[in-house]
Structure formats: structure tokens, C-alpha cells
User: What shape does this take?
Amino acid sequence: MRYNPNSWDLQVLQDYSADWDIRDRRGNLLHPHPGIWPDDGSRLSALLGDLLQNMGADEPFRRLFCLSCLAAAILAPERRRPELTSALSAHTSPSALGLPFLDWDHFRAWRWAGIPLVLSRPQENAGEVRWAMVGFGEKPAGARMPLWASSRMDATACRAVETAAALAAQKQPEGHFFFWPVLDPCGSSIVLHGSSLGLAVYLGFRSAQEGFSVPALAATGALSADGDILPVEGILQKCEAAHQHRLAGILCPAQTHAASLVNIGRFECLRVGDLETAEILWRFHAPGTGSDASAFLSPHLETTWIIDHLESVPAKLLSWLEADRRIISLRLPEIVGDPSIAKRFVRAIEALLDPPDWSKHRAQFLLDLVTPELVDTLGRHAPGLAFRLCKAQVACANHCGAAGKAAFWLKAAQSFQEAAVHMTDGESLILQHACHRIGQAHNRFEFDPRLAEHLPEDTRALIERMEGIFAERRRCDPLAVNHDLGSFYGTMAQNAAFCGPEHLPAFEGWISKALDAFGAGLVQEEAHTHWLRDVSYKVYAYLDAGLLKSARTALLTYLKTSTPDTCNPRWNPYQHAALMRWLADTEEPAPAYLAWACKRIGKTAPQHPWQLWLYNLGRSSVDPSVKEQAWMQSLQLCKTQGEETVNVMGLLPLAALHADRLGDPRILQRETGRIRSLLDGPHLSRRHFACLLDTHRWEKLLETVIDQQAALFPFSYR
Assistant: This one.
């Protein structure tokens, strides 16, 4: 019976042992991974007991099995570790596994991480990947390594671990380190040779010490006592092994010859000359970004180069570089002082705000560095660029639900609006800005059914002029598109839908014009993306109106699928949100998608609209535990991911928890009171939320939300 050593779980071993000798699967146990555990935790203890019983009195194999399971528990999500180690503790002890800890409480008090070790096998001209667990704790263990480690590691490898521990201790002297390679304790041959594991072990120790996650990176390099990264052999074989193991890249010494490196697809070989660089790349790694991230660490970077690569480095690294080296803020005076560089910077910001799965944290971080004073300085010699920068601030604030901040930058933009009209794309900018102004009103929960009549006269004249030009273009090119008009029509359609189902005819009029302006689905690339976004508006508007057949047709078009019970890895967060809203409102069966969704609780990105996806996941589930988890996570995202507009959406999961008698009433009361104070503030429409402000009992407020949620949170706000 053939098997992949990296593809196994406890149930597979149990099934195998029914007809075959479980010792045949020894190779599996040398490759622990977080997926070995059953989803149903109640089966875990019995499954472990059955497997150990099937092993009989073979104590060495039992010890290897328990060590592998313990390693898999460390590799599992942190929330599951206590459950998994507790299940193991009923069957063995640290000392029985050769781990020098007093008891399981002592072991669990340490912080643990798992790291890949890439090894070369010179005789076979090949490499391999093994796993090692590294720990950091305040109370010392009886030794640095397992009691059996010296029989599987040569003296040079043991010294490399000690050197790594000494260098990591220089960062934080209080504490102790432990290194435990996942090897068969009863083997007779040396597996870990030489000093090349030093760099990986040091980085693993730092991960455990600081509590940051281990990336999908390998590392190889010897370390001197002074912290120098020294060259090692077998780089080519190690690169190939890391790539075959589906790691995203490898860190290796700077002296490594280029011919020894393997760059396949997005797999990156990154040369590092010092421990600080290695640690930064390790800590902030994201697949495919290593080369640009490495370049960002250079002290001699041109400002224009930084601007051109703002999107290609991890957002967390960008934030760290700003905090540590002020890599952006020190250059902002130069940027606003030179119109050509400023134009480049504004374009880069606008690009970050464009995609449907835009990087909220990256855009927000950069725009938060741009102060009103800097915009005023730019406005003195480039008022059009200053206007565009204000417009970007409004767009980002609207994305984040920061109604107050959006209002501030809308007002700031007025100073530069006249200059913007005379720019090459001035009319386009003015219309976009009008859309952002409407979006800011929506973020305040201000919905005007007579908005078209209330538009400023110059805005209406601008639209008529642009419509005339577009009509002429259409006579020559039937597939011509107009992004500005399409965006404006779409915004007006949103407004009509926010005003309620009684305004559905107005919605359908505006959305028809929007879809047509974006090419009616016949034009690809960017226009098609915007066309699909407008199709999503039909999903929500028709759901609100109870037109389920029309809503389903729009949903399937938006998702590009024939059935809702599917999950496309290319879907953006808004597509997931629309599908989950459909499932919650209609109760259409979708077992496959909901099973996938339940595993995503706690793993979604901290940005809109995932909080609504989680809320509707709770509505879609029949399992009270899933409901509570989803609604509590939705509440947490509402509280932490955005400002006023998103915060107030926390009333939806709070009301659901209260209605189903889930959650801690003290938390529900506290969070309801916190959100009510926002409703009483200056940034949200008191008129819209009057029915809640008139209520002083928190329970009554949440019951009102349940009764009137369609009016309080219309269209795409629930």
C-alpha cells in the first residue's frame, strides 16, 4: 500500500491498522503536520487510545508516535493546542518522551513554534526537509535538547544549537530555549550533521521568544559566536528540497554563489548578510515579496523607487520600517515639494484604493502619514494633485467607515476643487469626488430618496456634458465604456437601494445605466470588474424587495457559477459576503460552502465586509456553537476593523446573540452601551437611528434592531 509521507492523519492510521501493521507507517510520523487531527474534538482521546492499543508493547514506536502527535499539536492553530496536548497527556508524560520537563503544565507554560530544517545528503546529491520544534520559557527545562538528541545529532550540530541560543539570548536575556528535532529517538545513525542548521534554529528561537509566526520559509547558514552568517554547502539541493516541500523560499548566506540558487515560479532564494536582515525577512515574509522586501532594507534607496514598490512589500514590513526608520515620513517633504514625484505618489495611492480586494491597512497606513499641513504645502504649487490626495483620503475613509474623517477631507478638498477642474482629467476627478461625497453620506446612514434633485447644478451640468460626449463615442464604438459615468450611476443606484424597496424602480433605472456604461458585461478587464460590482447591487436590492428569483440570477452572474454551493478561491470578500447573505435570507442548502465557511471563523481578513459575512454565517448555521463563534467574531471585527460605520454594524451580531440567548450578557450589555454612545455622537445620522436613541434599556435596543434591521441596516449594510 503506497502513501505520501506528508499526507496522513490519525483516522488514516486507524483505518490502516485494521488490516496492516501500523509500524509500516513509521515514515509518516517523521512528517507531522497540523491536519492530522479530527475536526470533532470529542473523538480525539478515544482515537489516540485505540491507536496506542494497536501498537501493543512496542515502546519505541509508541514514543515516536506520541512525539509526532505533540509536534503536530504545536503546528496546529494556537486555539487548538490546549485541547490537543491535554488529550496526549492522558497517555504519556514529557519524561517518557525524553523531554526534560517536570510535567505537562511546565511544558505548556512555554511558547512553542515549529520550523522546517533543510538538510543535504551529499552521498545522494539530494536534500530533504525535516521539522524541529523550538521553545522559549521562563522556567528552565532540564536540558537544551531531548535526552536522546545526542544520538541523532553530531557534535557540530549540537554546538550550532547552543550558538543560536546564545545569540537569541542577547536580544532578551531573561528566558530559556529548547530545541527538539522530529526524529526517531531510537534510531542508531546521525541525522543532523554540521552547523548549517544554526540560522534556522536562531530564527525559530526568535519566533518563540517574540511570539511572531513562522513563515513558509526555510533557512540555512552557519553562525559564528559573533553572529556572522557563514557559508554552507549543498545549497542547490536544499533549494530544490524546500521547493518540493512547498515552502515559499529559503534564506541563505550572502556569500552563496548565484549559480547555486533555484528560483522556480514564486519560490525565492534570498541571500542575507546579517542576522538583523534575516530576522526582518523572516518575520515579515509574504510569498513572492522577498526580493522587494530585501531591497527595502537598503539604506540607499531612491524615493521614486520606494513609491513604485509600495504595493510589492508586505504591509506589516512597511509599517515596521516606518516605525523603526521613518522610511516614508522622512521623504514626504521631498515628495510634496516636487510635483513630478508627488504625481507618482498620488498615482500609487490611487492604485492601492482601486481593487475590490484592496489592501486596507497599506492604504490607510500611508494616508495617515499625509497630514493636512503637507497637503496644504502641495496645494500651493500643485493644487490639482492636492485635490486628488484629498479625494484619496475620502475614498479610504469611506472604505473604512470613518465618517468623521471623510467629512474632514471633503471639506479640505474644497480649497483645491477649482484648480482640479482645469486639469487634463479635471471633470473626471470632480465627478469621482461627487460620488465620494454621496458615499460619505451613506457612511453616516443618510439616504436621500430625492438625491438626483438635490445634486448641485454644476454637477448636473457636468453629467449632461459627459453623457453627450459618451453618446457620440457610442455611435462610433458600440462597446465604448465610461468609468466615471458608470461609477456615478452605480452610486446613485446604491442610494436608491439604501432608501428601501419602495424605491426599487429608481434603483433599476440607475443600475441599468451603470451596467450599460461599463459595457453590459461584454467588455473585459477593468470594465468587467466594475460591471460585476454593479451586478452585486442587484443581489442586495432584490433580496430586500423579496424578489428571490431575480436575486438568485444576479448572484450566480456575480459569482460566475451555476450553483451557490461552491467556493471559488478567486472570489473576493464581496463575493463571499453576497453569497452568505443569500444563504442566510433564503436558507437554500449549501452544505459544502457552509462546511468551508465554518473552518474560516477567526481566519478572515480584518476588513469590511467580512464582519457581515460572519454575521450571516451565524444566521445560516443551525449549530448554536457555530452561531455564537461567528457572531462573536463578527462583533470583534466591527469593533476593531473600522470606525463609526462599521462599528455600529456590531448591533447586528449583538442582537442575534441576545435573541438566541447566546454569549455573556455582561459583554452584550457593555458592547451595546459602547455602540449606543457612537449613535449619540456627531458622525452618524441621529434621525436614522432615532428609534434606538429613544431606547434606554440595552435589551430593548437589541430587540428593536431585530424588529427593524431591514430599515436600520438596509441593502448591503447587513
Remarks:
- Residues 319 and 689 are 37 Å apart (CA to CA).
